Amino acid sequence: MIDATITFIGGGNMARSLIGGLLADGADPARIRVADPDPARREGLAALGPVRVFADNLEAAAGAAVLVFAVKPQVLHGVAQTLAAAVAREHPLVVSIAAGIRSADLDRWLGGGAAVVRAMPNTPALVRSGATALYANAAVDAAGRDRAESILRAVGITLWLEDEALMDAVTALSGSGPAYFFLVMEALEAAATSLGLAPATARMLTLETAIGAARVALESDEDVAGLRRRVTSPGGTTEAAVAVLEQAGLREQFRRALVAARDRSRALAEEFGAS
Question: Which one-letter DSSP state was computed for residue 12?
Fold first, then answer.
């Protein structure tokens, strides 16, 4: 459980999810602050529990042990610069969930010497089933790593990367990954409907099959290739379907998709960090 004052800079969906997860884990709401310029959003955040909401970033950040930057990457540079003096004075742990912003660039915008953890959560964090990769710069100590992990673990699993360059691959896999599965589910629903199933039936069977397959994989010691082989009986219906997907080059298409996402992540990091 977090025993420090945490300030969220930005009160969007991911911040709401993290705050909700922390409160569900028993965090003291009096130690949670959030700053957002939108009055309606502040009102919604206050409804999560007795957390403290602010319109002003500097006011919210004063005295905080942890600053969580939960703003859009294209505005993080300006936001960080307004807080640079406070960070230099109070030395909080800085956690960024802004996609594509490298830790060195954020540290530079904050004036240098900041303890920065870069996190890449994904959208299933909204339902506390997220997967988050974390990277800490050299200024983050063991206690800082524990605090950062505790915050992100409130909405799912966490893992550490020792090479920040791998964050682009994480973005391609788990960051963008929910969209790949949504696309597969969308295609399955459409195909099932074309075979005569009612749309509602096709949707329910698709979603429950996806959930069930994921649960089997999570609870099994066997890798997914083995699980696939086990449910693919020779000469059966599944083998016929899998053969079509293999012949269509599904594996190569997914490889190319992840390469494209990784390369775009790298390009955005260069673009955002150039300022």
Answer: S
* DSSP secondary structure, 85-122, as one string: HHHHHH--EEEE--TT--HHHHHHHTTS--EEEEEE--
Whether 189 and 200 have beta carbons less than 8 Å apart is answered as no
Q: Mean pLDDT score of the chain, rounded to an integer?
A: 96
Examine the pLDDT at 176 and tell me if it is beyond 70: yes
Eight-class DSSP state of 209: H
Give yes or no for residue 3 having a pLDDT over 90: no
Distance CA 26, CA 44 (A): 20
Q: Which of 199, 128, 183 is nearest to 157 (CA)?
A: 128
Closest CA to 64 of 143, 8, 1: 8
- Helices and strands (DSSP H and E) totals, the chain: 12, 8
**Above 60 in pLDDT, residue 122?**
yes
Copy the structure tokens of residue 1. 């459980």
Per-state percent for the chain, helix, strand, coil, to nearest 5: 60, 15, 25
pTM of structure: 0.92
Average pLDDT over residues 71-95: 97
Domains of the chain: 6-167 (3.40.50.720), 175-267 (1.10.3730.10)
Q: What are the backbone angles phi and psi of residue 96, rounded to the nearest 5°?
A: -115, 130
